[in-house]
Amino acid sequence: MAETPSAAETSRSSEPEVRLERRGHLGHIILNRPGAINALTANMVSLIAGALDEWEHDDGVATVLLSGAGERGLCAGGDIVALYRDAGNGGRESASFWAGEYQLNARISSYPKPYVALMDGIVLGGGVGVSAHARHRVVTERTKVGMPETGIGFVPDVGGTYLLSRAPGELGTYAALTAGTMTGADALLLGLADIYVDSSRLGELSAELEHRQAEDVLRDFAQEPPEAPLAAAREWIDECFAHEDVETIVDALLRSETGEAKKAAAVVLTKSPSALKVTLQSLRRARELPELRSVLEQEYRVSLHALTAPDFAEGVRAQVVDKDRNPQWTPATLAEVRQTDVDSYFAPLDGPDLWEKQQTSGSSDELISQEQR
Fewer Cβ atoms within 10 A, N terminus or C terminus of the chain? Predict the structure, then answer.
């Protein structure tokens, strides 16, 4: 998730937030807020969804490509300050944004044409949602991918708990609880990506997609990735993060003879205790759910409940607003977080659920019109 736009980003506000380009047989979606590392807005989500709807039925489009403008990354997530402010006003805009975003994540995962995501540079939170569900996911030596939510009192969403719960061993649990960033090679190891390509070749790869089949192009450009840093840590990660409660995980890390495990414990203990416990339960429940749509429905409930909890507002304040990096979590310790409080995040919503909301929200074209009015 990203911070608010910079001054440079504000000065570019007349430019479209998403550029849609057609070249040859390629439909190219370019996230176009480089000053905010292409952080997603509701309008961007609607524009992407509209493009996918249009290009699905356009015989002139054989492949869809997603990339980000600028040199810093594909997408740093969503504007958490906007969500923070909306939480104080009842959270209506956040609910609408998440519904559209999660529905888009599901749409991407089942898109009938090749959808290629260039996961170059920073890919966090919502950026994972628009890329890691793609049919073809390309990472580079510059990739920094992660789900940083527990550090701001929130819980991995955008289908992140679906992806991480299905990663090999307990790598996904490690990634979710520590909220750290991983390399492109790590993303391949976790199953968040498929293909490694040097960033210097992305322009050439994009050009080839204009007139050749995506599978053929990606096979020709694929390179042998470097060793994933997390590969050497699999033994202690799988052993320590396999437990069913966060306290036991932390205890196992602290008892480990591996120095990296003890460092991981220290990192985990800086995160929101409530977010940690809800995240672990989200992952364990996601493992038992049959497909992405059901996991996204669970995440929608959890996200809306988390929006009203004290730790989200405190986490954003500490990390982004005041930037004192000293959040005062409530409750302050893991031991104080009651199981009944954790369970409440998974309770049914008072209003429509995710897929009920889709039935009443209209088509993508209607959503775009609403955003532009």
Answer: C
Among the listed residues 16, 123, 25, 18, the one whose alpha carbon sits nearest the alpha carbon of residue 73: 123
Strand duo 195-196 + 122-124: pairing: unpaired
Whether 27 contacts 57, CB under 8 Å: no
pLDDT band per the 50, 70, 90 thresholds, residue 79: confident
User: CB under 8 Å to 79, separation ≥6 — which residues?
Assistant: 1, 2, 3, 4, 5, 36, 39, 40, 41
The structure's pTM equals 0.92
Decide if pLDDT at 1 tops 70.
Answer: no
Q: How far is CA 2 from the centre of its chain?
A: 11
**Residue 232: exposed, middle, or buried by beta-carbon count in 10 A (0-12, 13-18, 19+)?**
exposed
291-314 per-position pLDDT tens digit: 999 999 999 999 999 999 999 999
Q: Long-range contacts made by residues 331-334, C-beta under 8 angstroms, separation at least 24?
A: 331/273, 331/274, 332/273, 333/273, 334/246, 334/247, 334/250, 334/273, 334/276, 334/277
Pick from 87, 90, 45: nearest CA to 316: 87
Q: Catalytic residue numbers?
A: 78, 126, 149, 157
**What pLDDT sits at residue 80?**
86
* Nearest-10 crossing angle of helices 171-178, 273-288: 150
Query: How far apart, in whole angstroms, are the C-alpha atoms of residue 368 and residue 204?
Result: 32
Neighbours of 104 (CB within 10 A): 23
Q: What pLDDT digit, counting tens, does each position of 148-160 carry?
A: 999 999 999 999 9
Please, what is the Cα angle at 146 between 322 and 265, to 5 degrees? 75
CA angle 260, 261, 265 (to 5 degrees): 115
Over 90: is that where the pLDDT of 360 sits?
A: no
Cβ–Cβ under 8 Å, residues 153 and 327: yes
Burial class (CB in 10 A: 0-12, 13-18, 19+), 8: exposed
Spatial CB neighbours of 221, under 8 Å, sequence gap ≥ 6:
195, 197, 201, 204, 205, 208
Q: What is the mean pLDDT of the chain?
A: 92
